[in-house]
Amino acid sequence: MRPVFHSTLVHGTRKRGVVEKMRNKSMDVSSHRQAVAFADNVYWIGVLDPTLRTFDIILRTANGTTYNAYLVKGSEGVAIIDTVKESFSDEFFARLESVADYKDIKVIVLNHLEPDHSGALPELMRRAPQAKLYISQRATSMLKALLKPSSEIAYTTVTTDDTVSLGDRTLRFLHTPFLHWPDTQCTYLEGQGILFSGDVFGCHYCDKRLFNDQVGDFRFSFDYYYAHIMRPFKSHVLDALKLIEPLKLNQIAPTHGPILRERPRRYVTHYRELSTSSLSTDINEQNQSLIVFYMSAYGNTAKMAEEIFEGASIDGVRVSLYDLEGGEVDPFVDLIEAADALVFGSPTINGDAVKPIWNLLSSLAVVNLKGKVGAAFGSYGWSGEAVRMIEDRMRGLKMRIPIQGLRIKLIPTTEELSDCHQFGENIAHALINPNQGSGVIEFSDIH
What is the spatial distance between Cα 93 and Cα 124, in angstroms, rounded to a whole number? Predict the structure, then answer.
């Protein structure tokens, strides 16, 4: 058995010198096509994409990204872990060839089949036909969809605690679905304590120095990536952390961004913090949280919002009221994620809800809203489409709409404001007693 590589403890003067050289040398991988060693017989063979400015349409990448792929040498063969975007294949193969022969490749692992990680796979399999491909059990349909019909590839599916041997090296698989596709998994190099994590713990940050203790400050990119890629799957993140936290972690090697070799466990801890609501301790566990957001053109929807707020303020429900004219929408996302019920109010202008309401609703794609109670209300002058449109959007977000939306024409009367109060009370009761009644309650039937 080879000595265990550790970032701070290496046996033998010669090996200590090799490791220190790897650690202290500032790498410039943009000027050559050589693999970069970062552990004993473990290499980075990925590529840099510094000019990319938008990823998957929704993510801004201020200084580009990396497509990280890795090579592990064992006494009985070589493993390739993930590939790169097809357009960068030449650079990937050049780095691979600098440290290994194709005939020695025994194992190919794809932790995730998105094209930026699987693009070079068909050509790699052509060059190394003897290699066995290992993917998660949920990846089979995606593999067939990504490859041309003529490019049939044999594969083996794996799940948590399945292993593959390279002789003196063992790779162990961890089933971590929906991080951020259904097929995602992690691969752990036993003995050396290296987690090839796929997209988990990654970020879109391109720096030719590669390692977290040498690159620039990437904290914003790390959190931004989590917020847009991992946040919608917080429950799956927490499930994955149960598998990852007990591991010995000397390094974490994600598919995007820096290799985390300096204090890697702090990134695991940070993921747990990001995935755990910081607001939960501020609200009594016996209370439900309900938030009313509104925008008002002439004050009429505002009057409705205030009465709904008062009506919803019953025992067991903690209610908050926010006028969207008074602030940006981004800070509200954390509040929304921790809330149990969301009520949106908008006037109808030009047959539509107002833009701040849509801005807030569109930002909620990064939040899991399934099962939360939703409701809509608003004043209108002619047709009043805004309420129905907001309800449709909430249904699309998998929210529960137990109370039909409330619309009032122009200035609410005293009786109509009483209806608003009752509307708020009914929403609160629907929140506290979700099993009472069935279907959508027509507001005209409850006052």
Answer: 8
